[in-house]
Write a structure and sequence with these properties.
By secondary structure, the chain is an all-alpha fold. The chain has a single domain, classed as Ankyrin repeat-containing domain (Serine Threonine Protein Phosphatase 5, Tetratricopeptide repeat). The chain is built from 6 helices and no strands. α4 runs parallel beside α6. The protein starts with 7 loop residues before the first helix and ends in an 11-residue tail after the last helix.
Length: 148
C-alpha cells in the first residue's frame, strides 16, 4: 500500500475521478463525449477494478477521517458502472461520513447542494442522475431516513 495514495482500489478510484473530470470538461466546453468515447476512456479503470475484486481486494474500505471509500469515490465521479460493480460486491450504500451523511446525501450535496429528494433533475447531467438513481434502487437512503 502506497502511504501517499492508499490501497490499489483507491488509486483506481483516482483514475475514475480523472475520467469524470474529462467528461465534465467536455460538457462544459459544449462538446460532450459520445457514449463510446466515455466507455472507451473508462474501460481500463473498470478492468482494473474487476481484477482487484477478483483478487479479493477489500472494496469495503471506509476512512472516516477522509470520509470515503471506493463506493463514495465512484459515486462522486458519477461512474454508474463502477458503482454497480461495487454494489454487486455488497458494499454498504448507507455508510456514513464523519458528518453523519450517507453516500446518497453526501453525493447529492456534492453535485447539487441539496439532499436527494430536493434535486431538480433538469439540472443534472445524465451520469449524475444514473449514479444517484442506481444508489437509490440498491437501498441507499438519505441521512434523514436513517434514525441511527
Amino acid at each position: 500500500i502506497d502511504p501517499e495514495q492508499g490501497p490499489p482500489v483507491s488509486i483506481i478510484c483516482d483514475g475514475i475521478f480523472k475520467w469524470w473530470e474529462d467528461v465534465s470538461e467536455a460538457y462544459e466546453a459544449g462538446t460532450p463525449l459520445s457514449q463510446e468515447e466515455k466507455q472507451q476512456a473508462l474501460q481500463v479503470y473498470l478492468d482494473i477494478l474487476e481484477a482487484l475484486i477478483q483478487a479479493k481486494a477489500n472494496v469495503h474500505l471506509w476512512d472516516a477521517e477522509e470520509f470515503y471509500g471506493p463506493l463514495w469515490d465512484a459515486a462522486s465521479s458519477a461512474c454508474a458502472p463502477a458503482v454497480q460493480r461495487l454494489l454487486d460486491e455488497k458494499v454498504d450504500p448507507n455508510t456514513r461520513d464523519e458528518e453523519g451523511l450517507t453516500i446518497l446525501s453526501s453525493i447529492s450535496q456534492l453535485f447539487f447542494d441539496c439532499d436527494f429528494d430536493e434535486i431538480d433533475w433538469s439540472e443534472a447531467l445524465q451520469e449524475e442522475r444514473e449514479t444517484l438513481e442506481l444508489l437509490r434502487r440498491h437501498g441507499a437512503k438519505m441521512s434523514k431516513e436513517l434514525t441511527t
